[in-house]
């Protein structure tokens, strides 16, 4: 025993273990700012990851040049068809928009549509180097006005939040990360409140705390409720793929398929001017 | 030069794991090259150097991730220690040594990370088991070629150059 106490090796390991537990505890919750050492590490990696991303982009361009003309023509035809359909949808939606605005003015509703937000486009240059964390690194940082906590979206739906910022890059925690939780409602019923949590898998999220009397069904669209104050209201999170009854019988849980294809995600949009609304009585879900 | 390459290996591995390996992931799982190098270092150099190298590589990975800093320090440090302890009984010329130690190392490392994350309040479910199994499969595929490269270039070549054999 005393021999062990005299060993430098023993003390070194003890210091490392205690130090690791302290830093783990200190960094388990979101921090205001990351340390200089972490910024230095990101500073080394960001240019390299940017380079790989550029090469990949050019490679894709070269691939397009040599690909079959017929394949490209088919793709153009398909896109043209989709474009026509979207133009028709757009026309119908504009009518609804005008109608909604009239009703909002009538009811003195505060506008919370996505079109009032400033969006900063960003490319994904790297992903988490392990399977435990679901994060991505984007090519804009403090220099472009990015701050911790800003919501990140994609035309398909919600992506996540900025979790740390360096000079020229920022880390986004995806909603599929196990540490992430989003307050949601069902788009159809507007009643069912729940919390969507990441499972670590990129194609399934879990929706918890759903009251047993909810009219939740498969294929229901899940959108942000705006209650968690981290995300604007009304962003698509995913669709319900399976509903389960919890063992207690009082609550339901559901599996949600994310709207965004996280494995193929290449570009995202950061909402740079979102300020959470003050909590009002009408928003407490009563 | 020897120490420079040792330090460069985890830096390069994290770069590859955060970029290129994601284009070739198996069911969303990527390999842990950093762990493979920690295991091989421990197998060739014993438990003390294996532990220190594991701590160094884990710290680099933790600083890059920026969350729960210390998890990989402990997980890779302990994996390095256990693999280093086991190395006295094996013939390093056998390729199976590289493959089996990497598989064992992947399970030990994952188990330690899972226990530490759960102790910090993270909820883990069955998805983790699948993710670890896929990573194990990926690590297993890479272990053979990397072991051969490591044996001839790092162990044999550089050790002699550094006069440490």
Q: What's the pLDDT, averaged over the residues of chain A?
A: 83
Amount of helix of chain B: over 70%
Query: What is the count of DSSP helices of chain B, taking H or I runs of 4+ residues?
Result: 7
> Main sheet of chain A, how many strands, which sense, barrel?
6 strands, antiparallel, barrel
Q: Which spans of chain B have pLDDT < 50 for at least 5 consecutive residues?
A: none
Derived from helix and strand composition plus strand pairing, the structural class of chain B reads: mainly alpha
Largest beta-sheet details of chain B: none
| Tally of DSSP β-strands of chain B | 0
Helix content class of chain A: 25-40%
Question: Would you mind describing this structure in some detail?
Answer:
The complex is a heterodimer of chains A (286) and B (165). Chain A is an alpha+beta fold and 286 residues long. Chain A is built from four helices and twelve strands, in the order H-H-H-H-E-E-E-E-E-E-E-E-E-E-E-E. Chain A has a domain at 118-273: Thrombin, subunit H. Chain A is globular. The N and C termini of chain A lie far apart (64 Å). By secondary structure, chain B is an all-alpha fold. Chain B has one domain. Helix content of chain B is 79%, strand content 0%. Chain B is built from seven helices and no strands. Classes of the chains: A alpha+beta (286), B mainly alpha (165).
